[in-house]
Amino acid sequence: MSILARLLAKPFEQILGHTLLQPISSAVARFGLHCVGINLHYELKDSGELRFLQKVNKSIPGFICFDVGANVGEYALAALEAGASKVVCFEPVSPTFEELRQALNGRAATLKNIGLGEKSGNVSLYLPEGASSTLASRDAQLLGSQDNLQRFDVRIETIDEVVEQLGSYPDLLKIDVEGFELEVLLGGKKLLSGTRRPRFIQFEFNIHHMYRGQTIDNFIEILSGYDLYRLTQTGVSPIGVSPALDRLYGYMNIVATTEKIN
């Protein structure tokens, strides 16, 4: 911050820092965070994700999307409506997978009743009884209360294995797996370092990663060669400009890309 900017900011800091005005200061801070894509809305229409999908299709008409943590297919349907020629969906929870199958019946989609992770094998997923399946996680501690948890034993594979099996490469890789996004990327080291790596990767980052001891730097390291941005409602906010913002654990959708976007 320049000397002039500091001089201009000081009176406002003194006024808005007053105890009586701190509720207003807090509201302004929350609004500012929303504007740079932190603690933004979850719904697709308000999260900036629909706009981003349109950007992807403009860059790669008829793109191929891998939807990891597809849930009941809302994102997959949005990708197809944005112009994707094919979506490969990964959803390991069997009841949710059946809803996904019904939602995408007759659409250009390949459905896989497995999860993706750092290595292939069998793991347990936990879900609060009666809760939305979007809350399913490999770490029961992330779900808060340990009462009435459902457990699902599921199969996971690596994205490198799946790419080899399918013979298909994603242009857009979307990951939403409740705190285990980094593990999905760790299972794709061959893909991420190859000549046909995804041009766009979208993943969720939130307080779950703090509980698991992960930082944004872990993602920056494995996504070498990509530029990272936070999705906002109307565009993107670059990561790497403000170290303080980059180390917050508010809910956000992060985009890694080999292209410059705005």
Descriptive account of the structure:
With 262 residues, the chain is α/β, with parallel strands linked by helices. It has two domains: 1-35, no CATH class; 40-257, 3-Layer(aba) Sandwich (Rossmann fold). The chain has twelve helices and eleven strands. The protein has helices at residues 3-16, 22-35, 44-47, 49-59, 74-82, 94-103, 159-166, 181-186, 189-193, 207-211, 216-222, 243-246, and strands spanning 64-68, 86-90, 109-112, 115-116, 121-128, 149-157, 172-175, 200-205, 227-231, 236-238, 252-257. The strands form two sheets. It has an eight-stranded mixed β-sheet with strand order 3-2-1-7-8-11-9-10. Helix 6 (94-103) links the parallel strand 2 and strand 3.
Mind sketching the topology for me?
Elements lengths: L2 H14 L5 H14 L8 H4 L1 H11 L4 E5 L5 H9 L3 E5 L3 H10 L5 E4 L2 E2 L4 E8 L20 E9 L1 H8 L5 E4 L5 H6 L2 H5 L6 E6 L1 H5 L4 H7 L4 E5 L4 E3 L4 H4 L5 E6 L5
Parallel strand pairs: 1-2, 1-7, 2-3, 4-6, 7-8
Antiparallel strand pairs: 5-6, 8-11, 9-10, 9-11
